[in-house]
Amino acid sequence: MIRTRFAPSPTGFMHVGNLKMAITDYLISKQSGGQFLLRVEDTDRTRMVEGAVENLLHTLNWVGIIPDEGVKLGQDGKVVQVGDKGPYIQSERLEIYHKYVDELLGKGHAYYCFCSKERLEEVRKKQEENKQATGYDGHCRDIILADAKKRIEAGEGAVVRMRTPKEGVTKFNDLIRGEVVFENKLVDDQVILKSDGFPTYHLAVVVDDHLMEITHVIRGDEWMSSTPKHLVLYEMFGWQPPLFAHLPLLLNPDKSKLSKRQGDVAVEDYIKKGYLPEAIINFIAFLGWNPGDERELFSLEELIKEFSLEKVTKSGAVFNLEKLDWYNKEYLKRMDNEELAGICRSLMMEKYGITNYELGIMGKILALEKERATTLIELVENVKFVFELPNYDSSILIWKKSNLEEAKNILQGLINSLDTFSVQDWDKTTLEQKVGEWIKEKGFGNGNVLSPLRVALSGQQNSPGPFEIAEVLGKEETINRLQTAIKKIT
Ligand code: GLU
Question: According to the UniProt entry, where does the motif 'KMSKS' region sit in this chain (predicted)?
């Protein structure tokens, strides 16, 4: 059974690249009926942001990617930890890391390093000047452990570094990229325990993935260069490493790396802009993957069935926002009206100050524009004319070769006719049928009637059909708006 983990560092917001990792980890574990864990990697205390864990969890909940184990949101919306391999927050696991660091020190696989920041800086500068690969120069590598301990007892500060073998190669079979080989002499003597007593990412990730029985480590390509360090650590501990898959980087349309600065990369921003979770999941799953045929719309369930790491591209995946818009439009069009009303409820209340609309009516209002809008924000904005008739110029009431006088007569005729309709039958089908009969009876052209009617009801040149609008406006407001149009003409 596959166990995967999403291991975010709580640094503020969720980057779309992180969501891609989370989705992929989730899909791969679910395919085998396995577990998806969430572990919080907060060992870099300088990058911590208050509330970031809650934020991450809310975002994951919103897209429907719920961890089975580890850190998650409890019933009351508070952060909880679930599972028997915890704690799942690294800052709560310091004792565990210290034990494993001691083991490596004892076996000679790690050593204390007393080098000052200044010295390390100096070494790096020289290496750069000589065009050498940068990395630790091994200055403290041969200090005997007993001597190092004496220096520490005497008050000297130190970090612990892994004693990386300098010969041979480290190889592994990446599930996306195939065989990857690193020369050990290029693998740095990485710090594994910092002077503040916190482990570095490299030690913590290996210890935790092992103890939490992770079978597949699926993460972004930017972690590829860390993988040989991790494999060396697995070897030192004598542990079986998990399988690795490195997902392609996300790129801007100009093929540069998608960074924090270029465009919007925070998932939260897309939520705020009114994208649907279905669209975001589908769009992100399709960055660097497709099922190999024409199909593009996949629910989370369908993705679980069909997603496969073998079909993930090796090259970077372009983050194309037009495609996200396309997905959102498709999902908006297909969404049930009442469900849509439920989602837009608070946006509608906020924007139009409405308090007691039934979902049925609100759904009908939103249905007026749901085929045309790209985002929820745009949709809610586009139905504004229902709540507030926009000011418009009477010239747009004129249909083709017609004139204002004719428009006025037709509108007046419509008022007289609509006035006789009962409020009970005020639905778009009956209205369409009855007004159709009236048009025939009077011998008017359809456009000559329907166009000014549509404009009078919406105040817009381009708008949904007149009968749909009339239904949501109700009889009284429909007639009011026709009267307003007539007043504009006279
Ligand atoms: N904590 C790392 C991050 O912030 C996790 C990398 C990994 O998955 O190993 O993305």
Answer: 257-261
